[in-house]
Fold each of these.
Amino acid sequence: MHLYGTQTVNDKGHLTIGGVDAIDLAHTYGTPLNVYDIALFRERAKAFKETFKNAGMRAQVAYASKAFSSIAIYEVAEQEGLSLDVVSGGELHTAVAAGFPRERIHFHGNNKSFTELQYAFDEKIGCIVIDNFSEIALVKEIAETRKEKMNVLIRVTPGVEAHTHDYITTGQEDSKFGFDLKNGQTDEAFLQLHDHPYIELLGMHCHIGSQIFETDAFRLAAEALMEKMITWRDNHAFICTVLNLGGGFGIRYTEEDTPLAPAVYVEEMATVVLALTRSYNYPVPEIWIEPGRSLVGDAGTTLYTTGSAKVVPGVRTYIAVDGGMADNIRPALYGAHYTAASANRMDEPHDDKVTIAGKCCESGDKIIEEAYLAAPTEGDVIAVFCTGAYGYSMASNYNRLPKPAIVFCENGEHQLVVRRETYEDVIRLDIPLQKVKQEETI
Ligand code: LLP
C-alpha cells in the first residue's frame, strides 16, 4: 500500500494525515470527508519554485485552482508565494474573498463574459489570458472605455497534445481553446493586440494536456512558442517578456503511474528556453507554469464510512460507501483509477478484493472497481487516496446528496475549511410554487 506525504499508521492501526488520526477526523466531522495534507501541498509548491530559482530563472508558479477552489487553499497558495489561475467569475470571487494579491491572479477561460471581464478590471488583476477574437474585442472595449491598462497573454494551441505517456503533434489543432499557432490566427491576434494603448501584451500561453509523465511534449511546446516569439521580434521588433507553459504534470494515482519530480519538468523547460534564447540572442522571458493536479492531487484523501455489502456469488462483492459519484465523478466520467485502504485497520492484511460502490442511483457509481481492503465490515472508515484534484471541484448534489466537509491537517492540527452541506443548504435556492389564493381559483 502506498502512503502519501505525511501519512503514517499510528499504534492504533489507524491512518494518520498531517499528524492527525483519520478515524478521529471521521468521528469529529463525519463522512464523506475530504482531508488535505497541507505540508504536502507546501512541499510541492516549494519544489516548483525552488527549481526555477536554482536555474536562475524568473518565474511565476500559478496554482490552477480549478483543481480545488476554496478560500483556505487560496490562503495557503498566497503563503507559499504562488500566483493563481482562475477560470471564472466564481473562482475570481473566491480569490477576492481570500484577499489574494490581485497582481498575481491570471484569468483564463474560453468564454469569459463581459461581466466577468469587467470584474477582472475592477479588481485590477495581474493578467488576462486571451483565448479568442471575441475576447480581444471585449477586452479592448472595456480598456478603452475605462482608459485602464490590462496585461494580457495570447493563448495558443501549439499543435502538441499530451496525454499521460503519449504525445501527438498535429498540424491544425482541433481545440476549443486558444488561437492556432500555425494557421495565421495567432499572428492575427498579435497584430490586434501588440500596439494598443491600453493593452500590455506580455507574451504567450499554452496548456498541452493533463496527467503528463514525460518532458518531451513540454519541450516541443516551448520550442514552438519561442519560434513564434522570435518571428515577432524579427518582423515587428516586439519582445515577449512572459512564456506560460501551462500545467498538466502527472501524479501517482495507482502504481501504474510514474510521475516525475516537479524539478524534472522545470529543468527541462529551463534548459530549452535558455538554449533557444542564447542561440537567437533573445532576452530570457519569465516562465510561468500552472500546476493544478500536481499541487493538490495527492495531498487530498477522501474518508468514507462503509454501509451495505452485496455479494454476487462468483462475481464480486460490492461494499457501498456514504458518498460516490456526487463527490468524485472522475471514475464514472473518465474511468479514473484510485487506490484505497481500511483507515481503521491499516495494520491488517489488505487482501479482500472488493468493488467500492457509491450510494447514487446509478450502476456506474463505483469509486474503485478492484480495491483491496482489510476484510470490510459495516462501519469501517475507508480512505480513498489522491482525491485532492478535481474531486470536490467537480462535485454535484446528484440525488440531492449534500457536499462533504473539507478539513486541512498540518503538524498534528486540523481545521475545518469548508463546512458540510446540510439538507437546508441543498434546498436553499429552491422557490416553492406561489400559493394561489383559494378564492381566485373558484
Ligand atoms: N492550465 C490550464 C489552462 C488548464 O486548462 C489546466 C487544466 C491546468 C492549467 C491545470 O492542469 P493540471 O496541472 O491540473 O493537470 N477534470 C479533469 C482535468 C481537467 C483539466 C483542465 N485544465 C480531471 O479530473 O482529470
Amino acid sequence: MTAVRPDIAPKQAPEATQFPTGFVWGAATAAYQVEGAAAEDGRTPSIWDTFSHTPGKVHNGDTGDIAADHYHRFRDDVALMKQLGLKAYRFSISWSRVQPTGRGPAVERGLDFYRKLVDELLEADIAPVATLYHWDLPQELEDAGGWPQRVTTDRFADYAAIMAGALGDRVATWTTFNEPWCSAFLGYGSGVHAPGRTEPAAALRAAHHLNLAHGRAIEVLRDQLPAGAQTSVTLNLHQVRPLTASAADADAARRIDAVGNRIFTGPMLRGEYPEDLLADTAHLVDWSKLVQDGDLAAISRPVDVLGVNYYTPTLVSLPEKGESGSGNDVHGASEFSPWPGSEHVAFHLAEGKERTAMNWSIDPDGLYNLLMDVTRDHPGLPLMVTENGAAFDDYVSPEGRVEDPERIAYLHGHLDAVQRAVADGADVRGYFLWSLMDNFEWAYGYSKRFGTVYVDYGSQRRIPKASAHWYSDVIRRHALPPAGLS
Ligand code: FCB
C-alpha cells in the first residue's frame, strides 16, 4: 500500500454537524391549496370555495377548483417525493370531501382518496402526517354560524372520529388544526381569509371554539388511535418584537403576544387563558360565559408534540395618540384589524433585511428565538417545525430549469437556526418545508410560489427547483452542506 503524500492528501472538510438521530425531513401542503377536484366524488363547497368564487376576494379571481390537481396526480407526486428522498409528507384532509355537509355519515369515495394517498406514501416509505383542518370549513357549517358557534366543536369531534376510524391504523402522526389564529382572526376579524367576516367579538369566540374543538378532537384521537400514535396541533406563533425599548412598545408586544400566541398556548398548554388577554378584550366578549365549565380541562389535554410554523418576525409599536398604525398583518391588508382589543398597535418591516416575494423580511434568528422561547416557557415539550419556506418570483429558464438560489439561502439559514436551537436544548423532532410544490396561496391566488417543486399550471408539469435538489442533499447527509454548496 502506498502512503498518501501529505502535500497532496485531500484536505479534510470540517465535520458537518448532524441533525439528531430520527430527525424527520418532510414537506407540507394543504388540501384546498393543492387538490383541485373541487366538485368531484361528492365533495361540496367549503368556505374557501365560496370565498375564492366571490369577486374581489382573491388576487386575479383565482380559485382552488383545479389547483395543482394533486387529487388526480398524487401517485406521481408521491413518486417525486420518494425521488427527492423525503421521509414524511404533511397534508391536510378536506372536511367537505369526506363529510360534505359537515354532518352525518362519511362519503366513502372521499375517504378512499386519503386511503389511497396514505397507502401510496407508506409504500414509498414516507410517513404520512395528517392535519384535520387547514382552514376549509364545510360551507353548510358556516351557514349555521361557523366557528363563533359552540356547536361547531361537536361537528369537529364527529369528523375527527370518522378520520381516526378511516386512517388510524395507517397514520401515526395527527394534527388537529393548522394555525387556528388565521382561522379565527383572518377569517372573522380582518376578513382577508374565508369566510371573510369582520366581527372582532366573533373572532374571539371563534378562537375559543377552535381551542375547544382541538381539545375534543385530541380526546377522540387518543381514544381511537393505537397507543404509539402522536397527536399535535400546529400554531403560527408570532415572534413578536417591540420596535423600540419604550414602555409603550413593550406593551404593544405584550398585547400581540397575548392575542396572537398565548390565546392558544395558554389554554392548550397551561389550562388557562392569560389574565392580560381577558382584560384587553373584556369589552368585546364576556369570557365567563364563553368559557364553560370543563372547557379548559378539555382544551389542555396533552399533545405529544407541538407544531410551529415560522416565516418572519412581527415588529410592533404603540403609536402616540393621533398617529396611525401601519398595516396590520403579513397575510393581506384590510381596513379591519385581526387583533381584537389591540387594534391600535402598529406593524413594521425591519430595515436592512432582505425580503421574500411576500415582502416578508428574512430573519432566521426569529426561528431560533421562537424555538428557544417555547422551550423556556414549556420545558420538555417536543417540537416540530411544521412549516417554513419562502416565496420568490421563480421562472423556468429556456433550458427548462428553475434556479432559486434565494430559496436555498433562506432554507440554509433557517435549518442552521434549527440546529442552533437543538444545540441549545430545544427538542426539535423534524422539519417540514413549505411547500412541496407551488400552490394556491390563499388571498394571493397563484401569484406567489412557495414550492420547492415548480408547477406549470397550464400543463400541470412539475419541475423540481434547484432548492429541491439542495434539500435532497441535506436529507441524504442528515446535515447541512458547507455554505455555498448548492
Ligand atoms: C401559512 C399557511 C400555509 C401557507 C403559508 C405560506 O400561514 O399555513 O397554508 O399559506 O402560510
Amino acid sequence: MKKITAFIFDLDGVIVFTDQFHYQAWKKMADRMGIHFDEAINNRLRGVSRMESLEIILENYNGVLSLEEKNALAEEKNTSYRELLHTMTPGDVSQDVRRTLEELRGRGYKLAIGSSSKNARFILEKVGLLDFFDAISDGTNITNSKPDPEVFVKAAEYLGESPQSCIVVEDAYAGVDAAKAGGMAAAAMGDAASYEKADYVLQSFSDLLKIAPENEER
Ligand code: B16
Ligand code: MG
C-alpha cells in the first residue's frame, strides 16, 4: 500500500452542512411547482450535481419541460440557495473540523477540496477557508459529477499526488463510489457511514487523526 500523503475533502456534509440550505431552496421551488419533495428525496441529492438533482426532483412531476425551463428552475433554486449561503460565517465550521484540519496540516499532509458544487469557493470564502486548502477541485472544473471520479482525480492532480496516496473524506454514497472508482481510499461519515464500500468509518471528524500517522511514523 502506498504511503498516504494527502486528504481530499468533500465540502457539503463534511466541512460544512449546507444540505439543509439545499433542502430549503429545492423545497421552495418544488412547492411553487406543486411537486412533492421531502427529506428522503433530498438525501438522494447528496454529492449529485445541480441539474442531476433537478432531474431526481422532476421524477415527481407529471409534465414535460424544455431544457430552457429546466435551466430556469435550476437557476431559481440556486438564487434561493445563495441567499441562504450569504448568512454563513466562520462559525459554521466546527472547532472539531478546524482543529483537525490544522493538525493534519501540522503532520505534513496536503489538503484539498473535492466538491460537486459550483458554489464551493463562495462557501469557503464565507467560512474563511478559501485560502486554507492546497487545491480546490469543484463543480466548475468537471464535466462528470460523482459517482464519476473526475472531481477527485483532478484534486489529486492539482496537488501533484497520485490517487493511491490520497484519502477522500465523504458523506455521500455517490462520493464514496467516486473515490473508489478513482483508485483512492474513502473515509465515510454521516449518511455514508453505513456504506460497506468505505475503507474507514468516522464517528467524528477528528477520527481522521487516528488514520493519519504523525510525520515521524510516515
Ligand atoms: P451546486 P458536495 C454537492 O456538494 C451537494 O452535496 C449537492 O447536494 C449539490 O447538488 C451539489 O453539490 C451541486 O451544488 O448547486 O452548489 O453547484 O457534497 O459535493 O460538496
Ligand atoms: Mg457531500
Amino acid sequence: MSHVFPRHCHASLPTATAGDGCFLIDADGKRYFDGSGGAAVSCLGHSNARVADAVKAQIDTLAFAHTGFFTSDPAEDLADLLIANAPGTLDRAYFVSGGSEAVESAIKLARQYHIENGEPQRRHLIARRQSYHGNTLGALAAGGNEWRRQQFSPLLVDVTHIAPCFEYADRHADETPDAYGQRVAQELEDEILRLGPDTVMAFMAEPVVGATLGAVPPVEGYYARIREICDQYGVLLILDEVMCGMGRTGHLFACDAEGIAPDILTTAKGLGAGYQPIGAMLCTRKIYDAIASGTGFFQHGHTYNGHPVAAAAGLAVLRELLDNDLVAQVRQRGTYLETELRRRFGQHPHIGDIRGRGLFWGLEFVSDRDTKQPFDPVLGLAGRLKKAAIGHGLICYPMPGTRDGRHGDHVMLAPPFISTEAELNGALDSLERAITDVIPT
Ligand code: PLP
C-alpha cells in the first residue's frame, strides 16, 4: 500500500520509470507522448543531455549555499541571461522554486514597493476571472477560478476580479475584436476608479491564459490599453508567464507579442523544463531601486531561493532555447500544429473553438456550436477525455469549468519544442481517437 498522499485519492496511476525525448515510459514499458509537457513544463522533452549534465556538474561542484550567506555563479549567470533577453526595463531576477512562489513574491513586492515609495495606502490587487495564478493562499486569492477558490474563500485576501479577454465566449456578435478588447480593458479603469485610484497596488494577468481557459490569447490592442491604464493610475502591471512564458507561445516572453512590458513578471515551468523546480520573479530597475534606496531589503525569502542546482538547470535550459533558436522552431512547428488542428477538428460538431499561439493550443468543447452552449458538467467530459487519451498513449491537459469554473470543457496541448511533425501527427491521431471515444458524433 502506498504512503504517498496523491493528488486524487481514488486514481490508480501508472509509475513513470523513464523519459525518452518527447515520451514518458511507465513500468510496463508503455510509451506516452507528452503532448502537454505535464502542465506546459517539459519544453525540451525528457532526456536533454546538456541540461542533465549541467545539473550533475553543479551538484558535484556546489549543491547548496543559502542566499542569506552567499550568491552563486549559476544564479548570477541565469539572472544575467534572463535580463539580457527580458522585455522593457526588467532588471532583476528573484529565484524561487516554482510558479506559486513567484506569484507570492510578486504580490508582496508590489505591496512593499508602494510602501517604500511613500504610498502605504495602496493595497488592492485586481486580477481577472478564470485566471490561475497558483495554489498558495496569496496566489489562490489572485486567481479567478471559482471552483479552486470556493472552499478556501474564508482564508483568502480580498482581490477583485474583472473579466478576462476571452473573445470566443464573450465578444458580442456585432462587436469588432478591437472594440471588444477595449471594452474589457475598460473594466480595469472602472475597477480602479471604484476602489479609489490611490488605493490600488497592482493588476495581475496571464498574457495567454493557460490551465483555466485553455490557451486563450488576448485580442490585439487589449494589453496596450491595460498598460496605459496602469501607467495613468500608478498601478503596477504584473504579468504571470508561469505557464505561457519561456518560448511556449513562440516568443521568449509571451508579452513580447503584445509590444508591452510589465513592471513585474513571473515565470517558472519552462524555465526548469522539469529538470529542476525553479521559478523567477523579474522586476524593473525602478522597483528594485525603490527597495534598495529605502529599507534595503525585500521582506520575503525562502530557504531554497536561488538554489544553485535549480539555477544551473534554468541556465542550461535557457542556453538550449537561445543557442538552438528553439523559439523560432516553436513558431514553425506551431504553425504546423495549428494547421493540423484546424484541418482535423475545425468542422467537428462539438468543438467550438481552436485557439492558441506557438506550441500552446486549446480546443473548447460545446454541445452546440451555434449557441456555444457547453456540455452538462455532470458528464465529466474533461476527466473522461484525459483517461481516454492516456489509454491511447497521449498525455494532454483537459480541464472542466472553462466558462465559469463549473461549466465548459477544454483540452490544452503544450508539446515539447523538439516535437517532430511526425510526432505531432501521432499525438493528434491519439487525440482524435480519444475525442471519438468520449464524444461520439
Ligand atoms: N501561474 C500560472 C499561470 C500557472 O499556470 C501556474 C501553474 O499551473 C502557477 C502560477 C502556479 O505554479 P506552480 O504550480 O509551479 O506553483
